Amino acid sequence: MFKTLDEIDCRGRRVILRGDLNVPMREGRITDTTRLDRFVPTLRELSEKGARVAVISHFGRPKGTVAPELSLRPVAAALSDALGGRSVGFVDDCVGPSVAAALDALPEGGVALLENLRFHAGEETNDPTFAAALAANGDLYVNDGFSVSHRAHASTVGITAHLRAYAGRGMQAELEALSAALETPRKPVAALVGGAKVSSKLTVLGHLLERVDSLIIGGGMANTFLFALGTDVGTSLCEPDLADTAREIMARADGSNCRIILPSDVVIAAALEEGAATETVPIAGVPPGRMILDVGPDSVAALNRHLTECGTLLWNGPLGAFEVSPFDAGTNAVAQQAAALTAAGSLVSVAGGGDTVSALRHAGAIDGFSYVSTAGGAFLEWLEGKELPGVAALNA
Questions:
Q1: Is 14 known to be catalytic?
Q2: If you ran DSSP here, which 8-state letter would residue 115 be given?
Q3: Is 313 helix (H, G, I), strand (E, B) or coil?
Q4: Lowest mean pLDDT: which of 137-141, 255-259, 273-277, 295-299?
Q5: What is the mean pLDDT of residues 199-211?
Q6: Could you tell me if 197 and 171 are in contact, meaning their C-beta atoms sit under 8 angstroms apart?
Q7: Of the N and C termini of the chain, which has fewer Cβ atoms inside 10 Å?
Q8: Of 18, 35, 44, 151, which one is the catalytic site residue?
């Protein structure tokens, strides 16, 4: 079991704090502070406990060379703002004597941001020498970057061979939410898995169908399942070569007492275009030359009723082409129902994945979920049942 900040004694000690500060930036300005906002509580707590904090992160893909345009320097000012104006120093390397000198000069509670880890090739290769150099300037290690913990890098795995490791508050919240969703859930459990292609979610579907009571399949993925059942899906996005795989998944679900839920009606159009002329038809009524772009109102009503019977909802992927109106209606309505049931206390709702975060924010429902993970690859690998190296290292 991982150690948390409740167990850390860090006053006057040098803490190496791994975050994910790989934030979207344009012309030197951060355009979305979500990752910073989630990281700051751990940083503030360590500072208030009197630690000398060295923040480490990657930024972009410099591939082991120094790329000035991928410097973390602009993030130091943003961290200072997020901390209410508290000074955040910047060190132009992440290992070596310049780091040692900067940390020695920090007062208790002081914070310094170190330069991009990926300026060193040893970060991504988990090179033992580089990991030891990272650890040499710290007394303790805290990982608050769940979103990078699916990578066995020096800053997530190698460093833990040298320093006692703790989970930051963001990491702790993520792991507790995910555990509550699948390991010790309130039953019945439903998983809503959407997105464009079955091929990208095969492992996810296989892992979930033995662990949930119902599997709601939406987005373009649903078209492949409908096709596998003999439904004409017109010109819809579909993977006919995966029809046998879809039938196998449905058979396995039946053997695991997992109910597969597919749309009963759909919204169709001739093209995926803003304001396109649409029609709502039963799934058996999709004509040639038309594509399925959203679930229909009967499907939405059935899903919303189903959610009232569930104790836990795990959500990954949209139900339709939500980026283009009016094909956002289904995702919006079901997301809003999940948020309302969560607010009423009858549903635990956990969501994650890049498109999912965007879809829930678009629906105005993101703040209503029990927990929304901003991790992309790490969340998906967790859904696939894989052990995340950075998390395993905390438990070592």
A1: no
A2: P
A3: strand
A4: 273-277
A5: 91
A6: no
A7: N
A8: 35
